[in-house]
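Entry type: protein chain
Record version: 2
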Amino acid sequence: MASATAERQGDLFGLITFSDKVNQLARARSGPLHFNHCRDLLVNLQPKLVAPDFEDIAATLLNRLTRRSLLIFLTSLDDSVTGENFLSAARFLARRHLVMAIMPSPPGTQPLFSTPGVEHSDQIYENIAGHLHWAKLQELRKQLLQAGVLFHLASGENFTVTVVSEYLATKRRQLL
């Protein structure tokens, strides 16, 4: 978990959970009590099937964070409207903070010729659909990069490793 890595690195870290509104906010601190508090917030987090309000989260973060910070969004942006809403809000955040979005890679989302061979004709259509989805996410990546936002797709089994690796790479490059 990124918070455990931040704790070991001696960095301050916070947590904000949101859906259609900000749900929980733990300001950046360090120490085992703060780590346990953030862990408890995550353990008790309940999913909601609502559209995320990225404008609300951006306004909250811009009002509450006075120092330049690394903001890591763990969210799904594969819906076009959600991706556009995130891009719009992230543009404002990226003016003051380093913004990164890490998204679980949807199953089958990959470049067209990245799998070896086809066993049945349905796989051709599945591969094309996966490629179109991948291409749409690559276009979103370009738009986010132009806005100063880093975007990464992470496979389900490597999701935590990707989050920690990107956090450590950011520290190594001294982007903050």
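Comment: Residues 58 and 168 are 24 Å apart (CA to CA).
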